[in-house]
Amino acid sequence: MALNAVLGVDIGTSSSKGVLVAPDGTLLRSAVREHTVDRPAPGHVEMDADTWWNEFVSLSRELTAPGDAEVVAVGLSGMGPCVLLTDADDTPLRPAILYGVDTRSVDQIARLEKELGVERIRARCGSQLSSQAAGPKVAWVAEEEPELYARARRLYMPSSWLARKLTGAYVLDHHSASQATPLYDIHALDWYAPWAARVAPGLELPPLRWSGEAAGSVTAEAARETGLRQGVPVTTGTVDAWAEALSVGAHQVGDLMLMYGTTMFLVHTVPEPLTDPALWSTLGALPGTRNLAGGMATSGAVTGWLRDLFGDTDYAGLLRLAELSGPGAGGLLMLPYFAGERTPVMDPHARGVIAGLTLSHTRGDLYRAALEATAYAVRHNIEALRAAGGDIRRVVAVGGGTQGGLWTRIVSDVTGRSQELRATSIGAAYGGALLAAQLVGDASIDDWNPVREVVTPQPETAARYDELYGLYRALYPATAGTVHALAAHQNR
Question: Where is the Carbohydrate kinase FGGY N-terminal domain (predicted)?
Answer without folding.
Answer: 6-245
